[in-house]
Design goal:
It contains 9 helices and no strands. With 190 residues, the protein is mostly helical. Helix 8 runs antiparallel to helix 9. The longest helix has 29 residues.
Length: 190
C-alpha cells in the first residue's frame, strides 16, 4: 500500500475519532449522560452508526477515550513547561503552577466530570501524573534544597492532593497562592 494511502487512512481515522470524542463530550455536557445515545452521536458527528460501533462499543467507552486524550494533552503541556529550562526548583514550581491552573480551569461538578473521573483509566492517569511530579521532585531535592526526610513519591502525592483544592478557589491569584503554600511544604522545617 502506498505511504500516501496509509497516511490518508490514518488521518481519516484520527479525524473521525476526534470528532466522535468532541461531539460526545459536548452532547453529555448539554443533555446529560443518560440522554445521549450512540445514534445521536453518529448523527451529530456525521458518520454511520455501524462506523461508530467499529470505533467504540458504547458512550462510556467514548467518554473514557475523551478523558484519556485530555490527560495526554495535559501531560504534554506539563512536559513542555518542564522542558523550558531553568533550575530544578523553577521547573517544579512552573509545573505545579500549570497543574494547579489546569485543575482550576477544568469543569467540576458536572455530569461529564463525574462520568470521566472514575474507573481504571483514572488510576492510570493519576499514576502518570504522580510519576511526572516525583521525577521533578527528585531533581529538586538534589539541587534546590527541598526536604529529603520524606520520600519523593509521598511529596508528589502531597502536591497533587493539595493542588486539587484549586478546583474550588475563586481566582487564578488564589491558585497561585495555593502553589506557594504547597511549595512551602516541600521545604525543610527549621
Amino acid at each position: 500500500m502506498p505511504k500516501l494511502w496509509t497516511d490518508t487512512i490514518q488521518e481519516h481515522r484520527r479525524a473521525v475519532r476526534d470528532a466522535t470524542l468532541d461531539t460526545t463530550a459536548a452532547l453529555v455536557a448539554e443533555r446529560g449522560l443518560a440522554s445521549v445515545t450512540m445514534s445521536q452521536i453518529a448523527a451529530e458527528t456525521g458518520i454511520g452508526r455501524a462506523t461508530l460501533y467499529k470505533y467504540f462499543p458504547d458512550v462510556e467507552a467514548i467518554l473514557t477515550a475523551w478523558h484519556e486524550r485530555q490527560v495526554a494533552r495535559h501531560l504534554g503541556q506539563l512536559a513542555t513547561i518542564r522542558d523550558q529550562g531553568g533550575s530544578a526548583g523553577e521547573r517544579l514550581e512552573s509545573a505545579l503552577t500549570a497543574y494547579a491552573i489546569i485543575t482550576y480551569n477544568r469543569p467540576h461538578g458536572t455530569e461529564l466530570a463525574a462520568a470521566v473521573h472514575r474507573g481504571e483509566h483514572l488510576a492510570k492517569a493519576q499514576q502518570q501524573l504522580l510519576g511526572f511530579f516525583e521525577d521533578l521532585i527528585v531533581d529538586a531535592v538534589k539541587t534546590a534544597g527541598l526536604r529529603n526526610d520524606v520520600p519523593p513519591t509521598e511529596l508528589a502525592s502531597y502536591c497533587l492532593h493539595a493542588l486539587q483544592a484549586a478546583s474550588s478557589l475563586p481566582s487564578e491569584a488564589a491558585v497561585r497562592r495555593l502553589v506557594m503554600v504547597t511549595l512551602a511544604g516541600l521545604r525543610p522545617s527549621c
